Structures are given as structure tokens and as C-alpha cells.
Structure to design on (160 residues):
């Protein structure tokens, strides 16, 4: 089921702060340190694309445009190594829990479109790469054929 954009944003903004630096400061204050290698990655908040420093944080993302009709999560996740896959699994879990169905334009332009993980890593995707992620997540969940272009922009997201 497609959740109207205003409902998604109202729901997920409850745990947001404004900038990358603010979220990292809050996390460090609450936990005294960033995630250790023995802990799994976890999405701890969402920030704007522009608030992420150009130098410093590690990034997941990429160019994208590879998820086609018939692909599912297993097809998508196979492309990532043992280091990268846990970040995508954590992001997938958050997307499903929050019922987030948004396009690449939302990801890059919304004040709260970029996921931040508990070690400071951020998810910064092209429109196509965000579309890949969302298509793989929702194809598996909805048992429906999606491809990256279905989530390229909010205006491309098909109705349920």
C-alpha cells in the first residue's frame, strides 16, 4: 500500500534532527562512542543531503539503474560484499518498518531524506540507485514487479 507522502513524513520525522553533525553529536552523547565493529549497523536518523559534510563520513550508495522487473531483494543484496550488505539490510528494515515509499528526488531534496547509521556512515544515492534500493525492498515485500524507474522520482511511484 502506498502511504501518502505527508503521512510518511509526519511519522518518520519524530526521530529526526536537522543536520548530520547534530545527529552524530546526539548519538555520541547518548552512547559515548560510535558503533563498534561487533555491533550491527542501524539507522539512527535522517538528514538533508546538504547537511552531510563533503569530507569525512563513509557513504553507501552508488550510480544504480540495475534493478529490473522480476528482481527481488536477494538479487539486489548479492551485489554487495560482507562489509556493505549489513548497511543495506539495516536500511531495508527501516524502510519497511516506516513504510517509506519515496522517490530519488525526495531522498536528495527533502530535509530528512538521507539515512545516517550508528557509525556515522550515510546513505547517499543517485536517483537511479535510490530507485534500485526501493524497487528491491518493495518488490520483495509486495510480491510485485518493480524496477528502479518506479522509484526514480515520487511522480513515478505506481499506485497500489
Amino acid at each position: 500500500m502506498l502511504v501518502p507522502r505527508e503521512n510518511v513524513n509526519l511519522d518518520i520525522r519524530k526521530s529526526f534532527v536537522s543536520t548530520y553533525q547534530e545527529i552524530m553529536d546526539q548519538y555520541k552523547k547518548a552512547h559515548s562512542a560510535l558503533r563498534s565493529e561487533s555491533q550491527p549497523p542501524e539507522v539512527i536518523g535522517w538528514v538533508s543531503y546538504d547537511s552531510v559534510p563533503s569530507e569525512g563520513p563513509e557513504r553507501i550508495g552508488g550510480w544504480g539503474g540495475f534493478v529490473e522487473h522480476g528482481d527481488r531483494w536477494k538479487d539486489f543484496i548479492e551485489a554487495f560484499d560482507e562489509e556493505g550488505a549489513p548497511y543495506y539490510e539495516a536500511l531495508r528494515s527501516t524502510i519497511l518498518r516506516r513504510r517509506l515509499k519515496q522517490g530519488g528526488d525526495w531522498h536528495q531534496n527533502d530535509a530528512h531524506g538521507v539515512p545516517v547509521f550508528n557509525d556515522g556512515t550515510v546513505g547517499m544515492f543517485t536517483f537511479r540507485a535510490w530507485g534500485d534500493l526501493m524497487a528491491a525492498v518493495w518488490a520483495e515485500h509486495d510480491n510485485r514487479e518493480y524496477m528502479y524507474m518506479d522509484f526514480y522520482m515520487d511522480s513515478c511511484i505506481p499506485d497500489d
In short: The chain has one domain: 5-31+42-156.
